[in-house]
Amino acid sequence: MVQHFDTLLVNIGQLLPMESKGPKRGKEMSELQLLEHAALGIRDGKVAFIGTMVEADTFTANQMIDCQGKLVTPGLVDPHTHLIFGGSREHEMALKQQGVPYLEILKNGGGILATVEATRAASEEELITKAICHLNRMLSYGVTTIEAKSGYGLDRETEWKQLRAAKAVGEQHPIDIVSTFLGAHAIPTSHRNDPDRFLDEMADMLGEIKEQNLAEFVDIFTETGVFTVEQSRTFLQKAKEKGFGLKLHADEIDPLGGAELAGELGAISADHLVGASDQGIQKMAVAGTIACLLPGTTFYLGKDTYARARDMIDQGLAVTISTDFNPGSSPTENLQLIMSIAALRLKMTPEEIWHAVTVNGAHAIGRGDTAGQLAVGRAADVVVWDAKNYYYVPYHYGVNHVHSVWKKGEVVYERRRAFEGLSISR
Ligand code: IZC
Ligand code: ZN
């Protein structure tokens, strides 16, 4: 049957549709669907055909794109970012080199608290402009959907400013943004002696945030010197009662029992998990909580112990990975670099990594039905890669392999052709 499309991508070397009913858990993460010598049809911004070149033989289109044997995948999902913030923290790099621990810098009023100061001082417009720069870079690396957290206000006014800025950038940028309220990110200097009162103040904002639909998820930093497991439980229970999905910064630095709490409360994801216990992993498996691993942060903090991805996958967890983009512990927008670190340090296979950055990332932020997969009827969020196969992207590390990025059927990023005409080999 002759079919006509707005756009038809032809001569795709490898196509990864990543079709899946739910998140891929445990062994399912290695079962990768792969179409070779494939074609992808787009109509009205949506995927309208996925199949082989033989099936597409008679198809016509307003524009035919010859992919010349390249890899094509869904747009990537980055499920844990601290997108909206003022300033930067490059001066802390020297402190880290001298061996000052992350939590020590925070205790001395630096770290998150330094970014809080800069974020309070920035106007909403400035936050928006800065966030758009970061989003542009993410898009250039193939990311089409992200989660963005507040948490650099730690007061009503600035937390609202961050949430409004996240909404505004989501409305004007091709990347889809899922918003998380992280008012419980650190104890502000003003409340150092009364963290419970601070958490009550942040909890008082929940009703209004829900009414204005400014966040879908609520997150907390459960960590030594920040919030205890008990404080986290009380705070997150209030969020759950208000109808928010739950996330935790769990067991990032010290193994406090954040993974157990995530399982107990039925959180959608628990993030970091470097120190997660066996019991915590089991509780998450029972609850269906997704493990969001951030190996770029472990790398950047100069640590040798990484999250136990292999044990988590063996225990049947769905694992996703993320940049943790933030100005302190992981200043990078490059999710491809994180894919390489996941391969090298988390010992994840290429098949697991591709599930992690697509379908599982989407499920970790409540977008399983719309993002992370190429299926007929879904938005055509597509990446064409300058790579012939899916092994290549995590292998050739630290550089950008994107050829072009499509959002809802339109090209939104294309690699600059600075080297056009020069013969360069990979
Ligand atoms: O700004 O340091 N871990 N929050 C928890 C962060 C890292 C972000 C930061
Ligand atoms: Zn984080």
TrEMBL record:
| One Gene Ontology CC term in the entry | cytoplasm
Q: Which residues bind Zn(2+)?
A: H80, H82, H249, D324
Keyword Metal-binding (UniProt): yes
Location in the cell: Cytoplasm
Q: Which reaction does it catalyse?
A: 4-imidazolone-5-propanoate + H2O = N-formimidoyl-L-glutamate
Gene3D superfamilies given for it?
Metal-dependent hydrolases, Urease, subunit C, domain 1
Report whether Hydrolase shows up as a keyword of the record.
Answer: yes
Q: How is the cofactor bound?
A: Binds 1 zinc or iron ion per subunit.
For this protein, the record's HAMAP family field holds: HutI
Q: What is this protein called?
A: Imidazolonepropionase
Which species is the source of this protein?
A: Halalkalibacterium halodurans (Bacillus halodurans)
